[in-house]
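Researcher: I'm preparing a figure for a lab meeting and need a structural model of a single chain. I don't have an experimental structure, so a prediction will have to do for now. The sequence is pasted below. Please return the structure as tokens so I can convert it later.
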Amino acid sequence: MAESTIAMSSWTPRLQDSSLPAPPPEGSPPTASQEKEPPKVSAERPLSSVSSCLDESTLLKRRVTALEYEKEDLTARAADAEERAAQAEARAAAAEVEMHKAKGRAQARYTEKVHARNESRDLRLEVEKQKSERREYMTKVKDCFDGLKTRVEQLEAEKAYGTWSSENKAQQLQAAQDQLQTCQSENFQLKQNLVELQSDLAAELSKPTAEDIEARINALKAAATANLQRQAVHMQEKYLAEQKKTIKEMQSHRDTKFLFFKASWQSKEKQTQKLYESELQKTSKLEEQLAAAHKQIEWHQQLQMSTMQNQPRHFSTDQQDLAHMTPPNTHKHRRLDSSDGYEI
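Model: Understood. Here is the structure written out token by token.
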């Protein structure tokens, strides 16, 4: 019995060093659950890693929702861009209305030019009338000069023949000179009138005609229309380019953020997978250690049984009497079996 006690005391610390469960306290019989219950493996770290993965997934879902909100914001901005395009079209319509007003003003100027042309025609007719009157007057003056010349020749002939007296000749000569001066003054006035008419005619001829005015108006209309069309096309192209640039920048920013979130999520997923694998490895190692501990316990139980079987049974007479007098302690034997030889 002492040898078995020494043998058991030699391997008891080794079992305690193997992280085995402590023996039950004395006075309390072991239950079936305590005999069959294996050591519990801590699962707090894998659960915490799984919860962290769930938190990361929730955070990524929130970020995806934020990206959806940003997409809605971009859609609203696109609608705003369309509204601005409609405003640009309204401004183009206003410019077209202004062009119609300019056409109306040009039409008014054209009407004024038509009236001026009619007035110029009336003046031209008046000039032609004055020219005809001048021709008639010149014919009359020429006839008058011819008559005067004939009269002078007649007087000269009479003078040569001495048919009229000196007083009569002086009176007739004075009358002829007065008539000649009158004709000269009228001729000078006619020349002045002719110069004025020629200057007025040149001024009227220098004025643009109705065809020139119409051609100029058409050219101005075409130039104004082309200018407005160029401005409208330039404004539309500029606005579309700005909107495309803004949308492209927003799309690039959103794609960059999405790629960043995706890379972050993938890296965290890999880290979580690695952590989970490491926890699985640790769990498998603990299970292997637990299996080794169970094997060691079984081996120690077998060793104890073999030791008890090989133990000599030579008791003295006093010990046999004491054994007969003392009742067997069955509870102690049960505790010995349940604790695998921890207590005797």
